[in-house]
Write a structure and sequence with these properties.
The chain has 262 residues and is of the alpha+beta class. Helices cover 38% and strands 13% of the residues. It has 7 helices and 7 strands, in the order ααβαβααβαββββα. Helix 1 packs antiparallel against helix 2.
């Protein structure tokens, strides 16, 4: 059940307690069920509608003889929890939220298949520019994977930087009232094909710092995170911390490294 549905259920229970009637509890359950069904119905319709429109584009390119000189790309800016881990929306480090689609098609140039490189969001621009034969600016933060997209072998990093900042008006205002920089909070992490490592300062000033390590090979659904203590000296954790600090320094990120823990 989603968080929204749970809230509706609790509202119904409270109503039942206040009025001394079981009907209020049942009403909350039913409202929660209806809302959950509606959300999932909408989520199912969106990919279907998108697929239909992409089909129209591909059919047009084929009809006009443009398949060989047109690069078609399907991607997104974030995933969607859609009830997984009891969460909705995004802004969390779970695979459902951070893993986005990336499909490329150009007839007789990009061959069908899967690509195993670690492709971060900033890599979109340089990759597409190089595939289009355009110059990649020196100031670009991402890395081009054009060679890999065309079937070649590349020596690219097997890790990428993850980040999320408090952005809601309520959250930003709460930090400002205490004279705190909201951009120093949220969470930062490292993602590789084998694991996800995260340090979270939370989205509100009163939240404590937490540090997690997920073995994504042994626990692909990320149900059993390892909670890391500050004094941990494990070699893998130390390497993760070192790499994350490198990213923070390179990007000029003001993330608060030392914060009270629970």
């Amino acid at each position: 059940m989603t968080q929204v549905a749970e809230l509706l259920l609790e509202e119904g229970r409270e109503k039942g307690r206040e009025e001394g009637r079981e009907e209020g509890r049942e009403e909350g359950r039913e409202e929660g069920r209806i809302l959950t069904v509606k959300i999932f119905q909408e989520a199912q319709r969106n990919p279907q509608a998108t697929s239909e429109q992409i089909g129209r584009i591909l059919s047009y390119l084929k009809e006009k003889g443009m398949e060989e000189n047109t690069l078609v790309v399907l991607s997104a800016d974030h995933g969607e929890m859609l009830g997984s881990h009891g969460l909705m929306s995004k802004n969390v480090w779970y695979e459902e939220s951070i893993h986005i689609p990336l499909l490329m098609r150009q007839k007789n140039r990009i061959q069908a298949g899967r690509n195993g490189v670690v492709f971060a969001s900033p890599d979109h621009m340089p990759t597409l520019l190089e595939l289009l034969g355009l110059q990649v600016p020196d100031t670009c933060e991402g890395r081009s994977h054009a060679v890999s997209a065309l079937g070649g072998t590349e020596d690219s990093p097997q890790h990428m930087f993850l980040c999320s900042y408090p952005g809601s008006p309520e959250s930003v205002s709460a930090f400002a009232k205490q004279g705190m920089n909201h951009k120093a909070h949220g969470w930062r992490g490292i993602k590789t094909p084998e694991f996800t490592y995260v340090i979270s300062n939370g989205y509100m000033p009163e939240e404590k710092q937490e540090e997690y390590f997920y073995d994504d090979k042994e626990d692909p659904w990320q149900l059993h995170p390892r909670r890391v203590e500050r004094d941990c000296k494990d070699e893998v954790i130390m390497e993760c911390r070192k790499l994350l600090k490198w990213y923070l320094g390179m990007l000029g990120d003001d993330f608060l490294w030392e914060k009270d823990r629970g």
